[in-house]
Known about the structure:
Low-confidence stretches: 140-164, 169-174
Strand content: 35-45%
Helix content: 25-40%
Order of helices and strands: HEEEEHHHEE
Number of strands: 6
Radius of gyration: 20 Å
Number of helices: 4
Largest sheet: 6 strands, antiparallel
Amino acid sequence: MNAASYNRFVAGVQPTRIELGEVNASAKPSNLQELNVRVDTKFTMGCVQSNTQARTFDIEARLQMQFLTDKGLEVGRFICLYHLSYLSAEALEDSVLEEFTRRNAPVHVWPFMRELVLNLTQRFGWTGFVLPSFFIPSAAAVVESGVSQGGSVNHLAETTNTSKVPAKKPRRSAPKSDA
């Protein structure tokens, strides 16, 4: 696929829907004020349906995270699934849809996922976990990782990050009034 035809395809694509389809988040109660955690992350995207006649296509994006202590104990878990629908002015081809799923659709959904992870981890009582900015892998990186044609594109499969995060927000008692 040449760059000019791909750029023309991207210019003619309009998102028609970005919706949260599933969310599941949990945290283990803890009295610790600070905790070293390892974050195992898996982010997958896949084109699940396309209609060449109507020039529409649907993509699913799934993010799974597991927060583990240094000893491997799970202290939190997060899973979300987003449904993205698009309308194209250009004809749909499998190779173009695969490239769009890998390079463009993640940029549409990633901000929603970042906000959801931050919000829900704050609701755990943590200071919140911020996902990094999304990095689009090069075509060579996808080939080296063994992603096959027609399968889901797995951007951050089995990525492990270790970070020291406050386990809980500091709680202050309300000042006593003299009344």
